[in-house]
dITP/XTP pyrophosphatase
Amino acid sequence: MTIRFVTSNEGKVREAREYLTDDVEQIDYDYTEIQSDDLAEIAVAGAKEAFEETGRDDPVLVDDAGLFVDALGGFPGPYSSYAEDTVGVERVWNLVEQEENRRAKFRCVVAYYDGDEARTFEGAVPGRIVAPRGDGGFGYDPIFEHEGATMAEMSTERKNAVSHRGRALAKFADWLAEN
């Protein structure tokens, strides 16, 4: 069975192929991202639309992820991409800089849709917000520290080994193997 991963990000596809034994095909389809505070709701809506609009019988996989900062009431959460584009990573750090509690987590929900039923799988990685460090990664990686290093300081292999998406994909892979 081929699983179609709906993303324009080849890095996400490489990560998915590390967890899934089935064939993973990249589908570059720009589904409508609904506005919701719920990552699962966003991912399921995207998966259903992508399945219907791409006109094939193979199931699809869509992920939605975000940075959830405790001191900011979970902001930017599902709005992480928008906040990154409009406010910027440095300003998110500035918002948290004076806070005593800088705990945060990256969360990801992977939605699988086969035309009949949608299933979701969540992964999270705990950390804290710090002053920007490191040259790697993308997005909030320079301000998100996990186990003493920012994601931007980690090698791709180390980052993928602890990533929120990887944790969600591992849960999906376990479910897929049983079903």
